[in-house]
Prior knowledge:
By secondary structure, the protein is mostly helical. It has 2 domains: 3-70, Multidrug-efflux Transporter Regulator, Chain: A, Domain 2 (Orthogonal Bundle); 112-258, Globin-like (Orthogonal Bundle), CATH 1.10.490. The chain has 13 helices and 3 strands. It has helices at 5-12, 16-24, 43-57, 62-70, 72-110, 116-123, 130-139, 144-155, 158-180, 188-204, 210-222, 224-227, 240-258, and strands at 3-4, 32-33, 39-41. The protein has a 3-stranded antiparallel beta sheet. The longest helix is centred in the middle third of the chain and has 39 residues, at 72-110. The termini are far apart. Residues 106-111 have low confidence and may be disordered.
Amino acid sequence: MSYSVGQVASFAGVTVRTLHHYDRAGLLSPSGRSGAGYRLYDDGDLARLQQILFYRELGFSLDEIAEILKDPQANALEYLRSRLGRLSAEIDRLKRLTEVAEQAIEVQQTGVSLTPEERFEAFGEISFDLSYATEAQIKWQDSEGQRESMARAAAHSKEDWKQLMGEAAAWRGELLAAFDEGEPADSERTTDLAEEHRLHIARWFTHCPPDMHCRIADDFAADPRAFALVVPPSQQRPGLAAYLCKAVHTNAARRTVTE
């Protein structure tokens, strides 16, 4: 039995234009033509179309599908195994993003709502990069400290944010002064500033042992988006992130020795 292009499009849930494209690409050429030259598809063509649509649903490109259909017995298993691995990884990634989105919604629902004026008053030039926040949440999703930090941040009042950001600004001024005056990163003055930063995190967000503080400082040195959370770009100096990172590690080593 033969079917017109319109009938096949209706059966398969695709457009006539898609079928024409498959024909031009040599992926699915109809087995016959009507007396007027119109495309006619038989049952074998429909079976091939079903295969094409199956592989398209799995995300294969038309070139990959054409390669598979050259010899399904030889090619399909290898391609399917590869696709399964990628699909599994994508499923895991989407699950993590779903968890991040759910937590972000929870924070938005329970957190403090600030007008643009209030936000500037509290945070000044400090900005929060959404892409970094999402990556950090995925990276630290199994951390009890991360969960505690998000919960406490959501519970802070407007006055809390003003106070903690005021403390952060004062600390930042001292850090910049030490750096600009050439104070060594491993000096007592600078490592005291590192300890002050660690205690600030513990006071406002989560318990922050020295090893955890070192991981945070490593992020500052490696990712400008992370460092912008403590020093806005307009106040940064070349080498400042690495300077702070060294001070934090020196402080952690010093505390390990003394404790």
